[in-house]
Structures are given as structure tokens and as C-alpha cells.
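OP here, attaching both records as promised.
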Amino acid sequence: MHQEIATSAFVLHARPYGESDRIVTFITEQGKVTGIAKGAKNSRRRFAGTLEPFVHVRVVFRQRSASDLVFLLRCELLAALRTFTRDLDRFAAGSYVLELVDRMVLGREAGREVYRLVEDALTLLDAGTPPDPLLRAFELHLLASSGYAPALDRCRTCGREASAGLVYLALERGGIVCRACIRPGEPVRPVAAATARELARLADGPLATATAGAPAATLVEAAAVAEHLLGAATSGPIRTREFIARTRVDILGGVR
């Protein structure tokens, strides 16, 4: 007999399969799990309202032998995060969180840590935390959980602190270096020391401390640095990043 596993989870994405089934990917306390929900389109008892983003569920599944695709037995609704259905900016930010986790987490590694990170991020967004600093903190924590923790508060080579002026993001080394430690021909991006310190603060503290406070220019540069760091750990574009840009009324040419 196959063992039934029950775990708390959030849906990362779902797609139709055949006439009535769905293929659903979750981030759970067991890691990332993808399963088939037989008859999900017509089932009001086993899956009703639980195979959508921004709901906290308890999923029960059975591991199938010789298959990475689990058999989803049922989902129970634990909580619904309401803000995401009413605020386009937060919907975009939450969608980015889910897509990034789906891209960064390959299997069931770092299960509980990443699950708690997603739970904290979505709960804070739902409660009204400013999206920009929270997303930067989330990106950095996810990089660390995935084994790509960047060095941000001091030079990766000599250890000199990023105190004033410019430091440089070493694109291939995934961290900050001072001018003296740039290797000949190495691709780098100049970064204000204040931005490096803000990124280090966001990486070191819990997500709940990622409140607005840094100047807007610092947050813009921090987003560009985080995008470069994520580019080294993912392949292809993150589609929801463009979605976020399009929702911002303060960006020239943005639409809502």
C-alpha cells in the first residue's frame, strides 16, 4: 500500500489536463510537489476552491511508484488571502513570489524553509507590507535557501566593508567587490555603497523588517542588483517581473 502524506501547502501553478483533471504544483512543508487531481474540474467535495493561488491549504496525496507525479487525493482550505483579489499591485507581487519559487526550487530540497518563506511573504503582502522592499528581501532569502547566498555588505575577496562611494557587483561571483579586487576583464556592475548596505540589511533580517524607508533610488538600484543575482540562478525571463512593471502607475508608460 502507498502511504498517504498530508501537509500544509500553497499552490504555485495549476493547468488543465484532459477534460476534467488538473496538474497542480505546490510548495509544501515536504518541498515542491507536483500531482494530478483526477476529476478536479467537477469535484466540489475533494478540491473545491483549493487549487488556486493565494489560498493556504492542507493537501493530501499519495506517492506513486516509478513516477515523480503524485496522486492528489483531496485539499482542505485553511485560509484565503483576500487582498490579492482586490489589489492589482499585490496580485502581481504575489504572483512573482510564486513564479520565482517554482523556478528556483527544483524538487523537495529546502522544503520547510522555502515553504515558511512563501507563507511569510504572502501573509505580509496580504497585511499591507510595502511590496518593493519585501520582494527584495524575499529574493535574497530565496537565493540563500537555494545555495546562492550573495556577499553584499563587504568585498567578497578582501573583506573590506561597503562604507561609502561605489562598490561593484561581480556578476560571475555573485557578490560585491571593491575596485581593487576586480579581476582583469571581469564583468562588473557599479553599485552605490548605500544600496549594498540596504541589500545586506534585507538579507540578514526577517521578512517582517522589510519595511519602506530607503530612498526610492536605492530601491530601484536594489531591484536591478537582485535581478542580476537571480539571473545567475535561473534561466529565461521571469514573466511576472514584467507584469509588476505594468501595474505600477508611477512608471512612465505603465498601465493599470
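Record two, same layout:
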Amino acid sequence: MAQPSLDEVWVRELRRALLAWFAAHQRTTPWRNNPDPYRVWVAEVMLQQTQTATVVPYYERFLERFPTVQALADAPLEEVLRYWEGLGYYARARSLHRAAQQIAHNGGQLPATADRLRELPGVGAYTAGAIASIAFGQPTPVVDGNVTRVLARLLWLKGDLKAHAAQKRLWQLAQELVDPQQPGAFNQALMELGSTVCLPKQPRCGACPVSHLCAAYQRGQPTAVPEPSRRMATQARVDISAIVLREGRYLLARRTPDGLWGGLWEFPRATRDGRESLETVAERAAAQLGVQVQPVQTLASLQHAVTTARIRLYGYLCAWRAGEAQPTGAYDAAAWVAPDALTDYPLSAPQRRLAHALTQHGGQMSLQQV
């Protein structure tokens, strides 16, 4: 049975109020100042699962180094990852690089429709809709977490909105709502409202330009929807990175291109099994590369999270004893790196923190006594 369409008068008033609010209150960002398709694409990829305020400095630095599709396509992946370092979700950078090479090979111009954009690596329905509407003026919808929350409250949508049928309905609603004359501005306004006003726990209903159209507000229950989805349980684990010193240089290994931290360098890393000692795990981490070490002391301990895991990561200072580093398994390259050259290698944020702790600690002095 077909879902009923939205009331046309309500839709027109929503568009009017939202566009007027956005024109007066939108945040200034470098991609809005110049909605060139390439710039919009890079911004939208960076904004996936990352807040605007965090993205801006990374975006400006990235665009300064890679101002065009061709510049990005011509750059080595390792350099792209280095400029992405700290943003996390590095699969985005790898896909962006592959897509740039694909675009450059096909003439250098981004596709102008959502369907064609989705053929690019790393471009899903949301990113395609955002680029098509903002950069090319196509009346295509967008649905992300912010938009889902806004629509759920405006229309009192109950149930698990991550379910397939609910997602299909959300995209249908977003398609009906998008303003055909100003699709880019409307979609950005919808996302901006969710990001700055229609907040998850403490919505600013008094500042909302469409509260008079909002079913949740009219019911006096603005936080009752969307209803929470069932979350996957997180697991705790302990990882140890062996920070191995040999003749004034530290051992780094590069992870294979796919998977978590793909293409990034790190101090060799292993996961603790049961009650293993930290020293044993550090030895095992180095042994992956055919290197034997003498564990000396813990350098640093830090907490971070990936997908469904909460990780306690230890950096363990080790002295090299024997073996030539040979990349195997999770690693496809290895290098002995001088301390002042560590900044030249793209590291994940936790590994960069270990490198920073190393320079502050003066780890080389500690190992001279071994």
C-alpha cells in the first residue's frame, strides 16, 4: 500500500521558513564560499561522521595541497593519508584518492547526477545527493543522522528508523521535501538545523524556524523521537605497540591497503591474548616482522575506540636484538626511521600520540643502558 504524500501547504511553508532561516543563520564554511564540485565533494567526504568544526582546518590544508582532481589523482596515496591524518576513518581518504584517479582518467570532471556519482568509490546515496544538489543544482534528497532526527520530529516518525523499510520511507519523504528551485540550500538547511538547533538531547526549540510545523514540538515531546536503535555491544581489548630502537632509528611498519588503518604506518602492534604480559605481547608485535627485541619499559598508555572495540594501547620501548625487518601478514612495508623523520609518515591518531610521547620522553636515552 502506497504511503500518503505530504500536505502541499505544509511542505511549501517548511521550505519557505527553512530557506529564510538558513539564509540568515548559516555557518560560514570554505566549501560554501565556493561550491565548486571538487571542493564540495572533498567537503562532503570529510564531513562523513565528522563534525564541521573539526573538518574546516583539515579541509583548508587538504585543498591547499590538492587544489584539483588532477592534483589529488597524481599524488601518492601515502601523501594523501598524511594530509588526512587525524580525521580518522581512513577508508574515506583511500576511496577519495581512487575516485580522483577514476575521474581524471575519464576527463577530469565530476559526474553531475546522483546516480553517476554513486559509481565513484566511497560515494553512497547521501554523499551523491549532497554533491548533486549543492554543486549541480539537482533536486536530489539527502538523509543522514541529522536529517533523520529532524524528519522524525517534524513528522512524528516512530520505530527503528535504521530498518530497511523506514530508511526507504525517509528517502521518499526527503525527496518530496527538497525544494526544486534551491535544492542545495534546502538540503544544507535541513542538515544545519539538525546540527545546530534540533540537537539529540537538548533541542533548541525556541530558536527553531519550523517549530510551528513540528509534530514532536506540538506534542510537547521533542526528544521522544527518534527512538533509540539497538546498539552493538562494544568489547574491550588491549593492544601493545613495540617501539623498537636500533642505532638511533625506530621501526615503523605500513599496514596493507585494505581494512582498518589501511595504508598507514605504525609501531608494530599486536593484541593481548588473555593474561599475556605486556612484554610478551611487545615481543610478539616485533616478531611479526622477523625482529627480536628486548622489552625495556612502558612508554605510554592511551585509550581509543574503533567500530565496536574500546582499546587500551600501550607503547612499549624495546631494544633491537636481532633480525632484519621483513613485512608480512598485516604489513606490506617496513622502515627504520630517525626520530625527526617520524612526522613524514602518515600515522593514525593513537600512533601519532605514541610518537609524540616518544619525542617528549627521550626514549633513546632510556635504551642506552640496555
